[in-house]
Specification:
By secondary structure, this protein is an all-alpha fold. It is built from two helices and no strands.
């Protein structure tokens, strides 16, 4: 599970770096920067949904504050 999350973070940071590269090189004349940022948002949403699904399936467990009545 850790490997999946680490790969997702690497994809998110790589997409952000790609957007920075296109911003500096193209100066907004091509849609490459917008596409890279769109992929970054998509990867972030997919990671969030995957973590929620993993918690629901019991593959991961939260270690936060326990709510005892």
């Amino acid at each position: 599970m850790r490997i999946v999350i680490i790969v997702a973070f690497i994809l998110i940071i790589g997409s952000l770096a790609s957007a920075l590269f296109f911003m500096m090189r193209d100066r907004g004349r091509t849609p490459n920067m917008m596409r890279s940022l769109m992929f970054r948002v998509g990867f972030s949403i997919a990671l969030f949904l995957f973590i929620l699904f993993s918690n629901w399936m019991g593959w991961i467990h939260s270690t936060g504050i326990r709510m005892n009545p």
